[in-house]
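User: Run a structure prediction on this.
Assistant: Running it now.
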Amino acid sequence: MNKDIQILVDKGEMLPLMEEFYTIQGEGFHKGTAAYFVRIGGCDVGCHWCDVKESWNANLHPPTETSKIVENAKKHSDTIVVTGGEPLTWDMTALTTKLKAEGLQVHIETSGAYKLTGIWDWICLSPKKMKLPTKEVYERADELKMIIYNKDDFRFAEEQAAKVNKNCILYLQPEWSKRDKVVPEIVDYVMKNPKWKVSLQTHKYLNIP
């Protein structure tokens, strides 16, 4: 990457764009609604069960001008979901400022491991044990999405739920490869602890991106 492009990436004026696509939100509070997804490359959180590991290496994804991302996004939907990788690896100020200037609703899906930048209408926080969220993200999160891979994840979920704001909606979501085992455990847990809700990756059942 040449020096001039690197400066723009560091400012968030260009971002390593992995992919962008129009689909149905499959998870959490907004599941079932149409949205345009912008997947930003780069993540060092390192979840072993991540289903988009190809997003981890930012160098594999071309630095793209935020204005071009916005131009594409506004053609498809009023709701834009910024995901990754870990989008907060980068400064999200420029991208979200331009999206909001077009009157769009802007959501983020994040582990919260890095400084919260950008203007967000909805923050989906999905903490990971390897790199915990910042205090600000806990305070600002609209939904907490905890991925359940094994029994210890229920303990971790409660630990994280104690840190978010009182209005944050709490979700338990099975890790896809373990769904047959953990779904019954999640159902049982939510029935005993009704402050939680069940989230499923409905887009995978629908066989869409």
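The domain at 3-205 is CATH 3.20.20.70 (TIM Barrel).
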